[in-house]
C-alpha cells in the first residue's frame, strides 16, 4: 500500500502504487475539474465531455474500436465525473499494461469529439437525467446541494440541467477541454505489479506533448447560514427520502479525523446509534447512514434515510436528539474503541484491489495534494479521544448549521419545519 509520486517539469503528477504479485493492473487518469469548476452556462459540461471522450480518438476513430480493443484484453473500463474531478480508467491482466496505458492515454489526450455522436449522446444523457429523477434516494442529494449552496457551482447537479444539455455545441467541449485538460491539472495513477520506472517510461511516451497550461481555479465555497434550512421536493412516492446535513471543513483540516469517527458512531454499521434506534427499536427505516464528505475547501456531514412519510417529524426529532447526545455526553471507551475498529477494518477492506488503491490515492491528491498511506490514517484515528468527538459534535450540531432535504409526498411542511431545531 506504499506509493511513489513523481511530478514532471510541466506539472503532470504520476503516482505508482506497487502491489507485488497482483495479477491485475489499474490505469487511472484524472483531471482536476468537475461541476464545481463550471459556470452556470457550463453546468453539465464536465460530465458530458467524459461521455464524448469514448466516441473516438485520432488513433481509434470509432467507439467500437475502443471497446473492441479493451474487450480483447479482458479489461474492465469506465469513467466518472464528480464535483472536483473527472477520471478515466481501465484494469486488465498485468501483461497487458502497456496496451491498457496506451488506450487510456489516447482517450484522455486525443478525443475527436465527433459532431454526429454529440447528438446521439445528448439523448443518452437526457435519459440519464430522467432516470435520476425517478430515483428519489438519488434525487434528494441534488435537492440538498441546492439547499446548502444555492445557485453556485457547488449547489448545481453534476449532470447539469436539461436546458444546458440540449444546447451544448462541439466548440463548447473543445474550449472547455483546452482550458482544463492540461498537465498541471492531470494526475496519472497506476496500481499493480508494475515498477515506477516502467510507469514513467509509458508516461513520457504518451504524455510528452500534454500542454502545461494554466491551472484554473474554481469559485470558493463559503456558505453563510443563520438558521435551520428546509427544502422539500413534493413527489408521489411509496417512501420519503431525507438527508440531514451540516457544513463542515475542507479535506486538509485536522478535524476531519474526528468527523470520520463521529460518522462511525452515529451511522456506520449495524450497531451504530442511528441503526439501533431507527431500525432495531423503532422499525422506522430500512437504511440509515452517516458520513462526512470532504472537498478541497469545504465539507458536509450527512445523515440519510428512507421512511414512511407519516413518520417524518418523529424521525427528524430522533436524528436531532441523537446528534445532541453526542454534543452533551462523552462516548464510552467501549463505544469509541468499537468505532475505531470498524473504521480501520473497513479502511483496509476497501483497499483490497488495484482499482480501490488507485482511486484512494487519486482522490487524496486532488483534494489535499498530500498523500497518506492507510497506516498513517489508522494512526490518526487511534489518537482520537472521547473529548475530541464531543468537541466536534458541539461545533457542527447547531441551528445555524442545520439543513434538511426531503423528497416525497409531505402533507404539512410547516410541521417538519417546526421540529427542525436543536432548541
| Series of secondary-structure elements, N-terminal to C-terminal | EEEHHEEHHHHHEHEEHHEEHHHHHEH
**SS elements, strand count:** 11
- Which runs of at least 5 residues are low in confidence (pLDDT < 50)? none
**Percent helix:** 40-55%
Largest sheet: 6 strands, mixed
Question: Structural class, from helix and strand content?
Answer: alpha+beta
Q: How are strands sequenced across the largest beta sheet?
A: 1-2-6-3-5-4
Compute the gyration radius: what is it? Answer: 23 Å
Query: What separation lies between the terminal Cα atoms?
Result: 46 Å
Beta-strand residue fraction: 15-25%
Q: Shape from CA axes?
A: globular
Secondary structure tally, helices: 16
The average pLDDT value, as a whole number, equals: 97
Walkthrough of the structure:
The protein is an alpha+beta fold and 423 residues long. The protein has 16 helices and eleven strands. The protein has helices at 45-52, 63-72, 97-109, 115-133, 136-149, 162-167, 170-180, 196-206, 256-267, 273-281, 312-328, 333-349, 354-367, 374-383, 386-396, 413-419; strands at residues 4-7, 13-18, 24-31, 76-81, 86-93, 186-192, 229-234, 240-247, 285-294, 299-307, 402-408. It has a six-stranded mixed β-sheet with strand order 1-2-6-3-5-4, sandwiched between helices. Helix 1 packs across helix 7 (170-180), helix 10 packs antiparallel against helix 11 (312-328) and helix 12 packs antiparallel against helix 14. It is globular, with a radius of gyration of 23 Å. It starts with a strand and ends with a helix. The model has no long low-confidence stretch (mean pLDDT 97).
